[in-house]
Every structure is written in C-alpha cells, then in structure tokens.
Design brief:
Blueprint lengths: L8 E5 L3 H12 L3 E5 L11 E4 L2 E4 L10 H12 L3 E9 L5 E11 L5 H7 L3 E3 L4 E7 L2 E6 L4 E4 L1 E4 L3 H10 L6 H9 L2 E11 L10 E3 L10 E6 H4 L6 E7 L1 H6 L5 H11 L1 H4 L3 E14 L8 E4 L4 E3 L8 H19 L13
Parallel strand pairs: 1-2, 1-11, 2-7, 11-18
Antiparallel strand pairs: 3-4, 5-6, 8-9, 9-10, 12-15, 12-16, 13-14, 14-15, 17-18
Helix pairs in contact: 1-3, 1-10
The structure holds flavin-adenine dinucleotide.
Flavin-adenine dinucleotide (FAD) binds next to helix 1, helix 4, strand 12, strand 16 and helix 10.
C-alpha cells in the first residue's frame, strides 16, 4: 500500500469481489480503508469449501472477461498463478463439447483464492456484521454487531441490495426516493448447491463441467454440474458440485436437504456414475441478480458519500461485481475530492 498523504477514511461493507476491489483501489489512493465482513472468511459468493478430502467451488464456478479494466486485473492474476484459463466452453447435456472461443477462467486454489489474494495487506475484519449505518455530521457511523461504532468519511455498501437496505434503514438513513426505488427493485434468483464426494470417477465429460442453461438448455431443474477433480482443484477426491436452477431452488427451498439431494442425484445420475460417499448442501438466497441495475454503482448520498455496489450494478456475475467495485471506488474519490494523480496505480 502507498504512503498515506490523505486524511480521509472509508468503510467498505462486505468482502466479496466488489468490496475488496473497491477497498484495494481506495486504499492505494491513500485513503485509509477498513472492510467489515460478516462471514468468517473473505470471498462472499466466490466460495470454496471442503467435505472429507474433497474440495468444491460451491458458489461462482468460473468467470468470463469482457471489459479491458477487468482483463488487465485477470492478466496480472494469471501471471501470479492465482487464476488460469479453464476452457473455451463447457459440455452440453448430451456430453458434446460446446466450444465458443471465449476463455473461461478458474482459480487454481478454488474460487475463494481470488478474494483472498486481493485482500492481502488490507484491513479486513471478518466475523463483523454491520448492523446499521447512521449519519453523524459530515461523517458516517457504522455500528457493528456487539455495539462497536466506527466512523468514516465515506461508506461503500456491497451486500445484496435487500441486505444493504436493511442496514441503512436500521440507522434511519434518509435515501432519496429514486435511490430507494432502485434498491428495492433488485431481486435475486436463489440457488441450492449440492456437493457430493464420490467413491470413484464421475461421468462428467471434458472439460469437467456440464452447462445446462443458456444455449444448452433451460437450466431446470439442474443449472450446472462440475467435477472439481477434473477442474483441477480437488486432487484427492472425486468432488461434484450440482447447482439447482432458480425455479427448482425456489420450489424446493423449504424441503429437507435429503429430499433435495435425492431429487438432484436422480436427475444427474448419468453424470455421477459412482457411489456417493458424502453429501452437503448450501442454500444461496441471493445467488445472482435477475435484472441488474443499468449503472455500475449507485451514489445514494453525495455528502458524506454513501455508494452502493456489487453484482446487482452494471453487469452481474464476478466481472460485473469487480467493475462495480472499481466504479464505486472512483465515485468515492470524486466525492472526497481526491485528485486522480493520487488515485492511479495497479490494484492487483
Ligand atoms: C451458486 C452460485 C453460482 C454462481 N456462478 C457464477 C459463475 O459461474 N460465474 C460468475 O461470474 N458468477 C457466478 N455467480 C455470481 C458471483 O458469485 C457473484 O456475482 C459475485 O461473486 C458477487 O460479488 P459481490 O462482491 O457483489 O457480492 P458477494 O460476494 O455476495 O459479497 C457481499 C459480501 O457482503 C457480506 N455481507 C452481507 N451483509 C453484511 C453485513 N451486514 N455486514 C458485513 N458483511 C455483510 C457477505 O457475507 C458477502 O461476503 C454465482 C453465484 C452463486 C451463488
């Protein structure tokens, strides 16, 4: 991080892709930045978990590149050995390879390795849920669960919109009706993620994943199926991730794990093939925004700056979250009147 010459502070709520890239960019401008994350680890929906000796990406599975500023970051991560190209397409439900020429990237140590890499050297407080933010003169006060209060010149909120709104409402922040309407309109599709450790090899074809959504199908009841061993992140176990589609996930949300798992295993049995040794499920209430807001972030209050960011702004997915975090950092710089000269430099 660079020498601090600017006597300004920023608090970022949420340590997913958007929050961490925002924090890193702002910190590199010399603005003292703290990230509060309610989870035990950084990453949010870029999550990697373990079950027995299996390693699973259970949230985001891969990411694509469209924008030059994200491409520059990804190039750097490739050089640093954090991410690598996985494929140029995935298998169709009939097992054939649907190559379209666009690279898909995965994280060599599992998707959570990317946020962990970005977080190096940042002041990130995990296990710290932000309960409320409230205006206090020309600054913001951020109330952490347990009662600690921190203050800052600017705040960036990156949780899913509904959760961010609950935090500002808890502190009686008066939002302009248009800002509130934008946040209230954002909805997310749910996703039930199932992880299986198999006793032997799966029948998942090359390159280690079957995409059942988009051009390959309706994505219901199964959206996606991956063999994490073939992907390269689970060397010691045949570890399968299955994602239920949004309709399936919503319809089965209140059913028991056993019921959900048996339905999905039955549907995907020809890709599973070996006996299932262990099972775990994870329910993502806010998996992906259904219709992201058209702007890459939302400046809800100019003085003191309060900016909303995350994958619901701009382009959705991992890349959309990254670009939104960068855009929010730029807005904070502008609103705190930090010159562009201080604000340059790589963010890797
Ligand atoms: C099952 C699944 C599959 C996906 N597949 C893909 C894919 O293949 N490709 C792709 O590009 N994208 C995929 N996505 C979407 C991608 O993961 C997200 O778009 C992206 O990671 C969102 O990043 P974010 O920073 O906006 O939000 P998040 O990662 O959700 O980060 C927000 C953070 O805020 C924290 N938080 C919430 N409330 C509070 C609070 N009150 N106080 C403190 N912290 C709080 C949360 O714990 C979280 O860590 C998938 C997502 C899911 C769930």
């Amino acid at each position: 991080m660079q020498d601090r010459t600017i006597d300004k502070t920023c608090i970022v709520v949420g340590a997913g892709m958007a929050g961490l890239l925002a924090a890193r960019t702002i910190e590199q401008a010399g603005i003292r930045t703290t990230v509060f994350e309610e989870g035990r680890a950084v990453g949010g929906r870029m999550s990697t978990s373990r079950l027995e000796d299996g390693v699973f990406d259970d949230g985001a599975q891969f990411f694509t590149l469209r924008d030059d500023s994200f491409a520059a970051l990804v190039d750097q991560w490739v050089q640093e050995g954090v991410v690598a190209e996985w494929s140029r397409g995935f298998a169709r439900p009939d097992g054939s390879y649907n190559e379209d020429g666009h690279p898909r990237y995965y994280a060599v140590g599992g998707m959570a390795a990317v946020p962990a890499h970005i977080a190096r050297g940042l002041d990130v407080r995990t296990g710290a849920r932000v309960a409320a933010i409230q205006e206090s003169g020309s600054r913001w006060e951020v109330v952490i669960d347990g009662g600690t209060v921190e203050s800052a010149d600017a705040v960036i909120m990156t949780p899913p919109a509904e959760q961010s709104l609950a935090v500002v409402d808890a502190g009686d922040v008066r939002l302009a009706p248009s800002a509130r309407a934008t946040l209230e309109k954002i909805r997310y599709a749910p996703c039930i993620s199932v992880m299986l450790v198999l006793e032997g090899p799966s029948g998942v074809p090359e390159p280690g994943a079957v995409q059942l959504s988009g051009q390959n199908g309706a994505g219901e009841p199964v959206w996606w199926l991956a063999d994490n061993r073939r992907k390269g992140i689970s060397p010691s176990a045949h570890a399968i991730t299955i994602h239920g589609g949004p309709e399936f996930s919503a319809a089965h949300w209140d059913q028991t794990d056993d019921d959900v798992v048996s339905v999905l295993i039955e549907i995907a049995h020809h890709f599973i093939r070996s006996r299932v040794r262990s099972v775990r499920t994870r329910r993502w209430q806010y998996s992906q925004p259904i219709e992201p807001h058209s702007e890459s972030c939302l400046v809800a209050v100019e003085t003191p700056p309060l900016v909303f960011a995350g994958d619901a702004f701009g382009g959705a997915k991992v890349e959309g979250a990254a670009l939104s975090g960068l855009a929010a950092a730029e807005q904070v710089r502008r609103l705190l009147r930090i010159s562009c000269e201080c604000f340059r430099g790589p963010v890797g």
